[in-house]
Amino acid sequence: MEFARAGIPVVSMSMAICGLTSPVTIASTIAIANAENLASFVISQLAKPGAPVVYSSESSIMNMRTGEIKYGAIEEAILAAAAGQMAKQLGAPSMVSGFGVGLYGKVPGISSNVAEITFTAMTNLSLTDFASGIGGLDQAKGASLEQVVIDADIWESIRDIRRDVMFDDDHFAADLIEEIGPGGNFLKSPHTLKNMRKELFVPSKEKSELYDLYRATSDQKAVVEQARQRVKKILAEHEPEPLDGDAERVIDAIMSEYRR
Known about the structure:
Layout: H1 2-5, E1 10-14, E2 17-18, H2 26-47, E3 53-57, E4 60-62, E5 69-70, H3 74-90, E6 94-98, H4 114-122, E7 130-132, E8 136-137, E9 142-143, H5 145-158, H6 169-172, H7 174-180, H8 190-199, H9 205-213, H10 220-237, H11 245-259
Parallel strand pairs: 1-3, 2-4, 3-6, 6-7
Antiparallel strand pairs: 4-5, 8-9
């Protein structure tokens, strides 16, 4: 309620777990996640009408053998899709997906299997505005900067699956198709050079080598050591982009109102 009064967005993260904190059926878990978000929205609006809120869910299933939350389950992708639809129906920004490849390890590295990584990535097709989980270890019991670097690198290689596809005259390129004709190729066309980095994921040489390193069969010690060196480099050299003037003025206005 204090965050709401201060104008700070409240993230109402539901973690309804099929068979544990919600009935085992998918539909009922979706209903509970939605109800928890709506209840949080009501509290925020009672504290301050118009307070910003974020619809959020990291609902999944229970591992029926261990009792733990099962990150990377196929049901998690279905629940995220439903939560994303609910958020859009309400017109609220959302954080209903996650991403991380180290959630099953106690130390940094790639500990998730192929299926877990696939279904976790699929949650990001849910129309979500934000995602959680980057850098997480041991079922989100901990985190590390090395894991943040590894997760961010892999996320960069797949995030374009969420982008919009442009359908205008330049992108349809009907004139170019007619010009090249059957049996031709588009490799030498200026259109290809102009648009390839906008349309295709073309990593730098350094990143291409990283993606070769990030394989399930790779030496995990080498993966983590490389990430550790990059963490040190980023912490030593990175300079955050300054906020623009409009953003600073909005933040100052919010803080001034709260101090009164």
